[in-house]
Amino acid sequence: MLVDRLQGTVATPGSDAFEASRTAWNLTVTHQPELVVEAQSAPDVQAAVQFANEQGLTLTVQTTGHGQPQCAGGGVLILLGKLNTVTIDREARTAKVGGGAVWADVIGPAHAAGLAPLSGSSPGVGVVGYLLGGGYGLMMRTYGLAVDMLKKATVILADGSIVTASPTENADLFYALRGGGGAFGIVTELEIGLVPHAEVFAGSVAFDAGLAPQVYRAWSEWTHTLPNEVTSGTVLITFPPVPFVPEFLHGRSLLILTACSTLPQAESEALLAPIRSMAGAELDSFRWMPFTESATIYNDPVDPLPAIGTGALLTAFESDTIDTFLGAIGPIPQSPNLMIQVRHAGGASADVPTPETPIGNRREGRYLAYLLGVPMGPFTPEAIGAHGEACLQALEPWILARGPLNWVGEATVSADQIRGVYDDASFARLLEIKRRVDPKNVFSRAGVGIWIAAQKDSMSKDQGEPHR
Ligand SMILES: Cc1cc2nc3c(=O)[nH]c(=O)nc-3n(C[C@H](O)[C@H](O)[C@H](O)COP(=O)(O)OP(=O)(O)OC[C@H]3O[C@@H](n4cnc5c(N)ncnc54)[C@H](O)[C@@H]3O)c2cc1C
């Protein structure tokens, strides 16, 4: 029995534990596995993979369920959340991170060592899932993408073997992990670089959404003046009347400008003064803050919620882009996508020599647009999806690519959306690696990363009997 081979637990249909584990952070997801393994250790993960192999079952992996881990067609669902150990090497400025850790698990210990990771807006997001999709973080213009800081990964492959992937060992697999998604194996440990920023100057300032045309313009012009040390973004949001939103914001539509500066306080304040002093500025939270408070820069939702999103990398976000975008969004309070982010990319994430990754040709993106809806009330999933698609179609002249993978969407992403993340050469190389490391597609038939897109390719023709 599988349970006899594990430190962790196995849940089967009918049990409370099984029902509880069918949900993800994204409440649009209801997994339909045959059994659920909650791993306590890397050997547990290996045992579960070997069991799936023996039984001819597919595998779906979930850390938090913020991403695309839909387990739709049976098989084994492996929950990794308990593999969350973190060890910091202060001298080397690195962290060894368990495959199920979230960014909050890293940020605290890193801060105690005077360091910070290249995490994103939400510390509740899983380190591995975030990194496998590129990792577009709060300091990306200063230090690049999270994948640029990956030193090494321990991976359990589809055949149950454990390998190390690094620039010198299994270099192809290492390439695939830096932006190729979760279709190549289960990462049980990562070694990542950290940066010397226990504190940053960061926060946000809000404007009534009625000022969006001029505030977007001012922000866009301001981004052209910024050094790489400032990474900023915007959130156009209508706050729903839900308990986790302060009552005074219920129903309000705001355009919020965020920024994180790695410069000293005085220089940061001078750089940020133009946007903080604009007419209509309110709710200014900019301050010199410990990186442990980085969640307050974007104030992303913490608790699970149903979310449907879509996004794209943009080559520009100028006056004409802004008018077109706002026209496609329509009246902001009635927007089915209640949260619309545009973040400033470029800087080090585009300009410094970076390691070879499947997203190499996507580094020319200068802005990231992401639209997220919460299906409730009049906003059906279909209305949210159609509105998001219409907005991105309007942005087509400025779209470099759909995605990146972390922003392409949540559980229901389509093959075309995933395919649009990669250029032809990168996609072909990812497929070739996938064929080698997971020829029976043990991982991801249920919807992870590259495989959805590969279903449109010839890959399925020569892989023999797929796992069920
Ligand atoms: C509120 C919110 C804020 C976000 N902010 C940012 C941001 O600032 N920047 C950014 O780049 N992205 C951001 N994202 C996107 C996020 O990085 C992706 O959704 C990411 O995939 C989530 O990873 P996870 O492990 O939390 O989720 P999961 O859904 O558990 O995993 C996501 C994918 O990774 C796979 N996976 C997870 N762990 C492993 C593992 N150990 N080995 C192999 N595969 C694994 C899963 O199978 C799945 O395919 C945000 C998402 C949300 C919902």
Walkthrough of the structure:
- The protein is of the alpha+beta class and 468 residues long.
- Among the domains are: 86-193, 2-Layer Sandwich (Uridine Diphospho-n-acetylenolpyruvylglucosamine Reductase, domain 3); 200-412, Vanillyl-alcohol Oxidase, Chain A, domain 3 (3-Layer(aba) Sandwich).
- It is built from 15 helices and 17 strands.
- The chain has an eight-stranded antiparallel sheet with strand order 13-10-12-11-15-16-14-17.
- A hairpin with a 5-residue loop joins strand 7 and strand 8.
- Helix 10 runs antiparallel to helix 12.
- The longest helix is centred in the N-terminal third of the chain and has 14 residues, at 42-55.
- It is globular, with a radius of gyration of 21 Å.
- Flavin-adenine dinucleotide (FAD) binds next to strand 3, helix 4 and strand 9.
Question: What is shown here, in short?
Answer:
With 468 residues, the protein is of the alpha+beta class.
Essential attributes:
Vanillyl-alcohol Oxidase, Chain A, domain 3, 468 residues, disordered C terminus, 15 helices, Uridine Diphospho-n-acetylenolpyruvylglucosamine Reductase, domain 3, globular, 5-stranded antiparallel sheet, 8-stranded antiparallel sheet
Q: Which overall shape is indicated by the principal axes computed on the Cα atoms?
A: globular
Number of strands: 17
Structural class assignment: alpha+beta
Mean pLDDT: 92
Main beta sheet, described?
Answer: 8 strands, antiparallel
Q: Kindly report the spatial arrangement of strands forming the biggest sheet.
A: 13-10-12-11-15-16-14-17
CATH architecture of one domain: 3-Layer(aba) Sandwich
What is the tally of helical segments?
15
Unreliable runs, pLDDT <50, ≥5 residues?
Answer: 458-468
Ions, cofactors and other ligands present here are: flavin-adenine dinucleotide
Percent helix: 25-40%
Kindly identify the CATH topology of one domain: Vanillyl-alcohol Oxidase, Chain A, domain 3
CATH class annotation of one domain: Alpha Beta
Radius of gyration: 21 Å
Fraction in beta strands: 15-25%
For the termini, the CA-CA separation is 20 Å
